[in-house]
Amino acid sequence: MSKRTEKTIVDIAEELKLSVSTVSRALNDNPNISARTKDKVKKMARKLGYRPNALAAGLRNNKSKTIGLIVPRISMFFPAAISTIIQNKLQEHGYNLIICQSNDSYEQEIALVNTLYSARVDGLVVSTTLYTTDFSHFDIFKDNNIPLIFFDRVPKDYNVKVIKGDDYVGGYTATTHLIEKGCKDIVHISGPLSCNLYVERVAGYKNALQEFKLPFKKTRVFYHELTRDNAWQTCEKIFSQPPFPDGVFASNDTTAITIMEYCRKINVRVPEDLKIVGYSNDPRTEIVTPPVTSVDQYPAMMGERVVAALMELINTAPSSVPRYSQEIIPIQLIARESSAGTVKSSGKKK
């Protein structure tokens, strides 16, 4: 099989007996070219299978009009929601988006950073892996003044633009809500403390207990990746013997929904015996029975702020805009039936 020959504007020009410069201007909608000529050129381009070389154009003007985005997993609600917002908003500014997922692998994250740098993206937006504690692989963007923004999962001591949720307030609000509903023995299921999200949510949980003079018990906090399988195993530990908790604050909604499923299996009633609060306001929380109370992180607001900050960094000189700042996106507790009513549990299976 012969190798396909890539068609160029020279081929279009020869077919139409036009100059190369006229074809180029027609393809770029130059106002000095007539509509009739533009139409003729574009039809011939389609016929020949011409593809514009965006990389070559980027090399000429030092802009690729492309942004790189690295998220942990696109299958999770929050990264998926925010990726959609970022892509839509970037398109309004004439930019394309390359979406990559690290699968929570630190090694994969390093490889993606290098790949996107080689692809000459005009900026990089990142939500890090659960286990990223060394951020030196991002230095290549910082050192070359390429806009770099972290969101949601962010560095603690790395001087970059950060846009994050108010996770401390989220943890505090979720726990306070359970206490105000009468809970006195509240389990917290957290992600690994290598990630900023869970450090702050645990701190909010602890401080709410302290404020209401309830004891903090290390045995009531569990740390692991927030998957369904891990949540199920944790439920087996929690409910292996009484006394059972009367409240659970889960750091994501997958975990909250899994807890509810497990409780149904062992005849622990939600919310009568156990009240549950999740995190992220995943759409599933509204359609399960009972609907799950959750903390809304406002992904649309965060995505819009990420793009606004990115455009500011791209369109201004490095010296005129602070490259190192932090912006906090508020949270809101969405109360539903999983935390309704008053506690009536005796600590035994019903």
From TrEMBL:
GO terms for molecular function: DNA-binding transcription factor activity; transcription cis-regulatory region binding. InterPro entries: HTH_LacI, LacI/GalR-like_sensor, Lambda_DNA-bd_dom_sf, Peripla_BP_I. Keywords: DNA-binding, Transcription, Transcription regulation. Residues 7-61 form the HTH lacI-type domain. It holds the Pfam family Peripla_BP_3. Gene3D superfamilies: 3.40.50.2300, lambda repressor-like DNA-binding domains. This is Transcriptional regulator, LacI family. It comes from Chitinophaga ginsengisegetis.
